């Protein structure tokens, strides 16, 4: 966890610096302007958490195992808001202090959230169960660590679901995407391998013909084909992780699904379920 704690320390310093910067240098004298910037910082926190937090593309920008911490810009936005809250003119000091402390705690919570979520929702212990080349998930929350174990074993790195759970920052509710990236990157680095984020286009994935690939998949809402839900048990909107091992002679994709074992998916099935996030080890 050294990488996580270093990232936490760096982000605390950056957020504190952001608060000091806005309080000291970036606070206009007009009250309405300060309120505007404060409002924008709060809106930025909300929008970042809803739409941009934890996305795999951040690992392209910050290819570090602790990218889940370094790329949480909600902490920086809340830090900026802390400084503006403290400099609100024509506002009693106790009110400014409450707002500043609240935003400061929001910034700290954003930085520590991957650790807080594990503390609040402890993950299952995990096991080491396999069905052929596929590590089976032993709870509904551990599909990502199990898929990571399958993926790494296919690359010659022996590891289990149980080993990957803490590395992937899995909790009882599941695994964050950048947590999965962390687990794979740490384990690959131990064997002097590098992690590559694959192109988001299905056509490129298939034409590369470079397997295995660890894929994040889900059934989108509104898919017309009832077989996904009625026959195959997919729940719309729920994320899942699988490993594409290659193509069989018929052209279908061999999928290692930690929930069921080996399957064959057609290109149309993969197009429906894959949302563009994938990892490869080089």
Instruction: Output the number of helix runs.
Output: 12
Biggest beta sheet attributes? 6 strands, antiparallel
- What is the H level of CATH, i.e. the homologous superfamily of the largest domain? Cysteine proteinases
Overall number of strands:
8
Please indicate the percent range of residues in DSSP E strands (runs of 2 or more): 5-15%
CATH topology of the largest domain: Cathepsin B, Chain A
Number of domain units: 2
* Percent helix range: 40-55%
Radius of gyration: 22 Å
Order of helices and strands: HHHHHHEEHHHEHEHEEEHE
Which architecture of the largest domain per CATH? Alpha-Beta Complex
Distance, first to last CA: 24 Å
Strand pairing plus helix content: what structural class? alpha+beta
What general outline do the C-alpha atoms trace?
elongated
